[in-house]
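User: Run a structure prediction on this.
Assistant: Running it now.
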Amino acid sequence: MAESSAATQSPSISSSSSGADPSAPGSGGSPGACPALGAKSCGSSCAVHDLIFWRDVKKTGFVFGTTLIMLLSLAAFSVISVVSYLILALLSVTISFRVYKSVIQAVQKSEEGHPFKAYLDVDITLSSEAFHNYMNAAMVHVNRALKLIIRLFLVEDLVDSLKLAVFMWLMTYVGAVFNGITLLILAELLVFSVPIVYEKYKDSSKTPWNRQKKGRINTWKPEMQQLLKHHLIVITMLLVPW
């Protein structure tokens, strides 16, 4: 009887072990998921992945549009003017909505109260414990950056210091053509355009989570490199005169 019970349990065990794990990299998974990341590491990284790959068109369009308008405004006007206009625009919306709701309540003789009461009641107070946690996390990065700066400028490692010198020398040529805002605009256009173009024209059968052979292989279709090259040239030529 023990052998028969073991025999009856073995098919269920084998079937469960042979079934594909939906969270495994090789499985298909849901469309729009981040296949290169595991379930444990899928958090803010997956949110950024979905954002730059335009999984939610409305959300990505809003983020891309607002940040691009902000950068273009900073390129054309001063920071003080941009901040002032943003605050004025926000106040215009909130004041207009407040007056509109007050008029509607007066006409309808209702007592709905303040239209932003739900947001005014939200507790946004930062506790001392949370503040110290944020400061401790920030100090770790600050101390690491200070150690790196001291190590590079005091030439602890000659090769690393020479690499920094060569990089800064190359950046002088970049600074002669672009300014900081232009580089940020170029970076944003590339971040929100290159990944979706790559995903559209890549060969999905050769992606790292689907390939069977080990080693590095080319995952781009033949026209992919030329398309991205033209894409980069067009964006760069649009921003060079600035």
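Confidence is low (pLDDT under 50) at residues 1-32, 36-41, 206-218.
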